[in-house]
Amino acid sequence: MANVGNVMLRFAIPLEYGAIKDVDKGLEDLNKQVKAAGIDKILAEVQSQVDAFLAAKK
C-alpha cells in the first residue's frame, strides 16, 4: 500500500492542483504507475473483505 501511496503523492496530487498541463497524459501515467505499484492486488483484497462481510451478514 505504501507504494501506491507514494505514486498518488507523486502523480495524483499534481493532477489535482492543475500542475500537469497535459491532463490526459498525466492520467495515463498515473494509471500505469498505480498498476505497477500493485493497485490490482489491493482492490482484489478489498473486494474479498467486502464479500466476506456481506456473506457473514446473511
From TrEMBL:
Pfam families: DUF3502 (PF12010). InterPro entries: DUF3502. Residues 1-55 form the DUF3502 domain. This is DUF3502 domain-containing protein. It comes from Paenibacillus algorifonticola.
